[in-house]
Hints:
By secondary structure, the chain is α+β, with helices and mostly antiparallel strands. Helices cover 18% and strands 32% of the residues. The chain has helices at 128-140, 158-176, and strands at residues 18-24, 30-35, 40-46, 56-59, 72-75, 86-99, 102-103, 106-111, 150-156. A hairpin with a 2-residue loop joins β6 (86-99) and β7.
Amino acid sequence: MTNLWEDLETGPNAPDEIYAVVECLKGERNKYEYNKDIPGVMLDRVLHSNVHYPSDYGFIPQSYYDDEDPFDVLVLVKDKTFPGCVIEARPVALMHMDDDGEQDDKVIAVPSEDPRYDHIDDLDDLTKQKKDEIAEFFRTYKNLEEGKEVAVEGWSDKATAKEAIEHAMDLYEENFA
């Protein structure tokens, strides 16, 4: 059985084009996580707060970030896909986040093969409303979970997102190659 974190490359042209493995779906409260030991997507929990994912959310294969997890990615989609779906995507921004004292940044990406997102190339192409919606979700999605604290610490451009992806690829190599 294929392990989507270990067996799938980071992307066809990483960090410019990456693969995003979808775990959580746009519009839902279910928090799925990929379990590499099965391998498969499992229900981790249902979000305690009355919020839903602003878009499809998952991880970048063969990446490892400072929070000691695969690097997170939110792919802007018009229609949700399904857990385990692999999306070829272009990074456009990086949202900086602290989750219980750990750096837990999120790559924001758009599908490479959806012309509805051809005009989005960098952070400045995202509307203020879209950035606010994403930040508000991550600021509040753990509010009702006991002892959890999350802080959104700002935004960076595509170049910074690509540097962070390269960092996550290097950490993966150091820890798992």
